[in-house]
Design a protein that fits this description.
It contains no helices and 14 strands. It is mainly beta.
């Protein structure tokens, strides 16, 4: 159990939480019930006028040449992705997919089909707990590796492999790994999850469970208003652009 002291507090009382989610493209293997279709990310120079435009997580798909030689994918360097160029980017309301074989292009989060070998999907945003208590972030069916950060280390270029809250390698694919954290209601906690894939197919499921047992995100439940890109007020500021993340 971990209590996370570093975060950004905002007042949600004046913010509407209506959710509008578009239907997913049929070419991607997505969790049942997760209607994930990408839309362009909202950057720091734009002025969205409704809360639901900020819901979901920004993501970037980035290429790499790290080879998985077994074990815990020791060659994979997460810091490479702070400045790595993008293939695609957008916003998604769920995290996860499963695809084999890798040579067949697929549509990830509804975007143009690409090969899924030697890519990383870099998700980021803020998690807003609806109540105070212990939250559980669980990963399952990981191929090749997942790194998850919650708190200050997730923001911009602060993330490293050493300070990850959870690391789940392919060698533990069949198991579920869990990260537990005591969080305060209404606080915006920086969040990041990178799915890394080298040779072969790729897969991941992420589940987030609240203190009362409510599943806030899973293969059957999208993220609703618990994950946002950043706040309208600027109290939880936009991240730096993908590929340009510094400390």
């Amino acid at each position: 159990m971990v209590s996370i002291p570093t975060s950004i507090t905002v007042n949600r009382s004046s913010v509407a939480t209506t959710v509008t989610i578009a239907a997913a493209a049929t070419t991607i293997v997505l969790p049942v019930g997760c209607e994930c279709k990408s839309r362009p990310p909202i950057g720091p120079t734009t002025s969205p006028t409704s809360y639901n435009q900020l819901e979901g997580l920004e993501y970037a798909i980035q290429k790499h040449d790290f080879v998985h030689r077994g074990g815990e994918f020791e060659d994979f360097n997460v810091e490479f992705f702070k400045t790595a160029p993008l293939i695609q980017s957008g916003v998604t309301t769920c995290i996860g997919f499963r695809h084999y074989p890798e040579e067949v292009p697929i549509s990830i989060y509804g975007r143009s089909p690409i090969r899924c070998d030697y890519i990383a999907i870099n998700h980021r945003g803020y998690f807003i707990p609806p109540m105070t208590g212990e939250y559980v972030f669980s990963t399952l069916n990981v191929d090749d590796m997942v790194c998850l950060w919650l708190g200050d280390s997730a923001y911009n270029g602060k993330y490293t492999r050493a300070n990850a809250s959870l690391i789940h390698p392919l060698s533990e694919e069949a198991s579920t790994k869990k990260y537990r954290a005591v969080l305060t209601a209404g606080v915006h906690y920086p969040f990041r999850l990178i799915l890394a894939n080298a040779q072969g197919g790729a897969s991941l499921w992420l589940t987030v469970t609240g203190p009362d047992g409510t599943v806030l995100l899973s293969k059957d439940v999208d993220s609703s208003s618990c994950f946002i890109q950043h706040s309208l007020s600027g109290a939880s500021p936009p991240f730096q652009p993908f590929g340009q993340e510094t400390l």
